[in-house]
Write a structure and sequence with these properties.
The protein has about 100 residues and is mainly α. Helices cover about 50% and strands about 0% of the residues. The protein has a domain at about 1-70. It has five helices and no strands. The relative contact order is 0.12.
């Protein structure tokens, strides 16, 4: 919490940068205690996504390393296998026939 608030504070010092300006309201919210009282994992992930492209604007000396331990969950039922090998094989055979006919 303190690291993220510190990052927000440092980014607010650079709000004249066009990429940071649209995030000023979020950066101010992050520094308030009320923001952290109602935070949930989805909201925190939205903050992470919103800030990650802005970190490059921090001064090198003030950059802190933030490590997350979120794990992605793969929806195995939603993943479908596509028959890429037969398509690739057919294209390869066709290319070989074309090259052989030119020789």
């Amino acid at each position: 919490m303190n690291k993220i608030s510190g990052i927000a504070k440092d980014l607010l010092k650079k709000q004249n940068i066009p990429a940071i300006a649209p995030r000023v309201m979020l950066l101010n919210e992050i520094q308030s205690i009320d923001f952290w009282k109602v935070i949930n994992i989805n909201h925190l992930d939205n903050v992470r996504v919103s800030l990650r492209d802005l970190l490059k604007y921090l001064d090198k000396g003030s950059q802190v390393q933030v490590i997350t331990t979120f794990k992605d969950i793969l929806d195995y039922d939603g993943v479908k296998e596509h028959g890429l090998i037969p398509t690739y094989t057919a294209k390869l055979k066709r290319s070989c026939r074309i090259l052989h006919s030119r020789a």
